[in-house]
Fold each of these.
Amino acid sequence: MIADAGLTVLARHGARGLTHRAVDEAARVPAGTTSNYFRSRDALITGLVDRIGERLSPTPEDLERRRAEPPGPALFADYIRDIVRRLTTEREVTLALFELRLESGRRPELADVLGRWQRAAFEGDVAFNEEAGLPGGRRQIALFHYAIEGLLFDRLTTSIDPETPTDEVIDDLVEGLLR
Amino acid sequence: MIADAGLTVLARHGARGLTHRAVDEAARVPAGTTSNYFRSRDALITGLVDRIGERLSPTPEDLERRRAEPPGPALFADYIRDIVRRLTTEREVTLALFELRLESGRRPELADVLGRWQRAAFEGDVAFNEEAGLPGGRRQIALFHYAIEGLLFDRLTTSIDPETPTDEVIDDLVEGLLR
């Protein structure tokens, strides 16, 4: 799939390496195919942002499994562990998102698309938590966003403390930040 | 200064844009000057990592001012605020560091240099805290690293919650994570 190949290019070569031709090569499709699907670089990037959302979303099975559990700090911690596991497994997608966020500092059109998408996802997280009767409001969820993104940045690039298991860090964060 | 021009190139064009020639241009020096100082791309990157350390270090005046205050959570929060202020003001340096960390996932030699430098800085933070009699051990300081890096990533690129002042986020983090 072309969008997946685009995410691979982003993760492996950075935003500057993202060209229609590089995506053609990564997807092993004839030259010009990516341009047919995504006419401009902005259209390509918008397509990649959408695809990131699809690939990082929980599966229906994930959601079903958790729905049966009683809401509380333990379930909140389970959700956080699921998210971190998904973003760690989908390493290239998470790195592609970090690349796009750095690129957004250089290109206001991208900051627009990406910022809107991130804020919608954040508000979705807040609404989900409330509907599920989970602890933690808007303020706490923002804190978790920062801490988890920093933790993933550490784990997916150079780490300051590789010996401590990621799940222990999550437990510490839940214990401290959820109130 | 050539290393500063290199950091500007990194922040503005990403790791893939970092070439000796691009640094010559950014520093407005004759072509070939950067190559004279830093013979290889690895030497250039090592020079940039050193320069990041210099530019993000607290000034002697900063340290002197805080040394007079009694150690405790309030002083710890002041130090965190100082760090965040410095990294926010030195926007290009912080972004250059994020770029290098993403690049380190693609280049093991860089991961080596950068990882060693980050871990030494982390151990330095732990030792500083202990010597100053401040609350928070190794585990807590790692949590602050993750949370603060995620917060800076948010504030320097696209933000999920731009309305909440950064200092309020820091207060929440200190209240929750320092124990």
Amino acid sequence: MKLATLNNGTRDGSLIVVNRNLQWAALVPHIATTLQGVLDEWDSKAPRLEETYRSLNKGEIKGFSLPPARLAAPFPRAYQWLDGSAYLSHVERVRKARGAEMPQSFWTDPLMYQGGSDYFLGPRESIRVMDEAFGVDFEAEVVVITDDVPLGITPAHASSHIKLLTLVNDISLRHLIPAELAKGFGFVQGKPASALAPVVVTPDELGEAWDGAKVHLPLRTYWNGKLFGEPEAGEDMQFDFPQLISHAAKTRSLSAGTLIGSGTVSNVDWRRGYSCIAECRVMEIIARGSAATPFMSYGDRVRIEMEDRHGRSIFGAIEQEVSR
Amino acid sequence: MKLATLNNGTRDGSLIVVNRNLQWAALVPHIATTLQGVLDEWDSKAPRLEETYRSLNKGEIKGFSLPPARLAAPFPRAYQWLDGSAYLSHVERVRKARGAEMPQSFWTDPLMYQGGSDYFLGPRESIRVMDEAFGVDFEAEVVVITDDVPLGITPAHASSHIKLLTLVNDISLRHLIPAELAKGFGFVQGKPASALAPVVVTPDELGEAWDGAKVHLPLRTYWNGKLFGEPEAGEDMQFDFPQLISHAAKTRSLSAGTLIGSGTVSNVDWRRGYSCIAECRVMEIIARGSAATPFMSYGDRVRIEMEDRHGRSIFGAIEQEVSR
């Protein structure tokens, strides 16, 4: 099943069911009006939405043509966004960029931060930045969305709480981050609002690419129309999603509609390219002594997308431009 | 005006208007059913709620007796909780406890972290902890709640966005925090769900104790019935609320219903006592070489309350017990 949110001028938008090939959509006010409302009562709502989804795919119900420009983030706002950093090649490279070593404990203790979730940018919404000199960077990631997760859940029991998946552009202001992280309290200014992909999908939509813990597909990032990276999301992920959920729930329960991010998808094999500029710059420094690739400028565009093994877009594309 | 949320078995509860002396309440479904709904449309909803509040205070409408045991947190869940740490005597002492110096920049650059807001404990809800050995501590703070705050707002313009105030118990697991903060990504496991006071109030309820930037009243914390601290919230607050809001909004707008905390209220003059155990322990170490006061045990109770200059409770009391 694929779900999205239509921008209707309100804060939460209108929930829509979207067909598999992302061409048709149907409003479902008789079932739920918002995606949060679905997560709040997943067991009763999801089967009814699945029914609409099947009918839409078969052409049994007449939907309307999906208007990509009118899509809000699937969650225009959410109660929780916890972002892991499970690809250690990313962690190692980005830390190297700010002159920090990666401690040995990072191999066994997941990195995770509490992100801002009061507003998620829509898939085509501009990245508004007051100053280019902040060092604007994209970070392409996979995200899972949970129902209610009990306190102290083990990784073995966490997978069944993953109800939906999508992609995120976890926008980072690189030049603000070193001073902010040095304070120890995580990101407030260094990470403005993130953008979500057009649709969220249930795990079954991924077929064999989903093993209950990781997504085994490449995540492609394009910068100004040029392929910048296509690392395999299922490789080099040191902590899988059930482990990240278990880490987050060690001392508290997680409420329905919690988004948990993989962290920037990154492979040890740098030839597959990068999901953020910072990694590319570090590899340039290692190879040539200095970084040649600048961060994003006003007018720059980023596109983030994941296709199945047949080349069909799963979540639709995040396509954003940096604006003043 | 004073507002609260009745636990009605749903995730968001039912909004109620509470009279000034916290004895009577009225449901207002014709105006709004949730506190978030009020913040979403403050300008149109607040005047109508104020009218109900006036009538309730005058006895013109018949409310029901406020049932303290049935109150949820005013926001049972919220889209954003950003907690500052504006009292530097707290910061200095707590850092000393984990062997860290306080950098000079902390006098000019506010400390703030993004906290979990997917669930706030009600004012009488137990602090459920899986292991006493986590080092359970309370932190008594003042919180402001904003409407929509534009990106890049200056402190001079931020005060008018403060629509409501309340108190929070920002529960901390002291023994998990040093390793977590060393990673630089802030708190995930070290800060489980916080508890909010029974009611939120508009700034005018504070009278002269509110100067548009700070609350000039003592904040009292009792541990197992004994007064543990009564620091003045208006003293030694290095960054006032408009400055904290401006800091948070440097690179992003803040959505209506954002909670911003003062950090643990603390005075340089230690004779007024403490709003958390960690500070008390550090002062013991300085005075005697070792900490005599333990952290909280199962069955321990904490009470946090602020009274006006006539001894009347403003927000009602947070009263919690630590449970397994």
